[in-house]
Amino acid sequence: MTTLDPSTQPATGGSGAKIVGGRTGEGPGPDVMAAATLDGDKVITSDGEDIGKISDIMLDVRGGRIAYAVLSSGGFLGMGNTLYAIPWSALVLDADEKCFRLGVTAERIKNAPGFDKDHWPAMSDPQWGSSLHEYYNQRPYWLATRGAVEGRSLDL
C-alpha cells in the first residue's frame, strides 16, 4: 500500500488531483489519461475504508477543467446507491494501487451532502460549489490560477 505524505505532493492550487506512484513508463498516464479509465476506480478514505467507486467525472466545459468526481456508494448492483460529488482537488490518484485516496474519514463521507441518480444538484451553482469545497476543506477549483501546471517540468 502506498503511504501518502501531503508534504511531498506538489501543490495543485485547488485545481487538480495529486498523483502518487507509477510515474515512469511509456504511454499516457498518469499525468494525462482518458477519463473513462478512471470510471469504476475505488475510493479509499483516510481510515482505510473502501467507500465506493468513481461513477462519473464532471467537467467545467467553459473553464476546461475537471470540476468533480462523482462517488457511487452503497446499494446493490447499482440500486439504492448514494452519489457524492467530490472536488477533484480533494482526491489523490494512487497509480500503483489503481484507486483514489481521499483525506477524510468514511464517517465524514457518510455525513456528506449526497444525491441520487434522478436528482442531481446544480453543479454549476457557485454557492453549491463553494459549500461543497468548504465541506472537503478545498479551495474552489474556479479560483485556481488557470493554466497553472505544477509539479511538471516544461521544456520549451
TrEMBL record:
Coiled-coil regions listed in the entry: none
Alphabetical list of InterPro entries matching this protein: PRC-brl_dom (IPR027275), PRC_barrel-like_sf (IPR011033)
Taxonomic superkingdom: Bacteria
Gene3D superfamilies: PRC-barrel domain
Region (Disordered): 1-30
Compositional bias of kind Polar residues: 1-12
All copies of domain PRC-barrel, residue ranges: 31-96
PANTHER family assigned to the protein according to its UniProt record, in alphabetical order: BLR1072 PROTEIN
Name assigned to this protein: PRC-barrel domain-containing protein
Species of the source: Paraburkholderia madseniana
Lineage: Bacteria, Pseudomonadati, Pseudomonadota, Betaproteobacteria, Burkholderiales
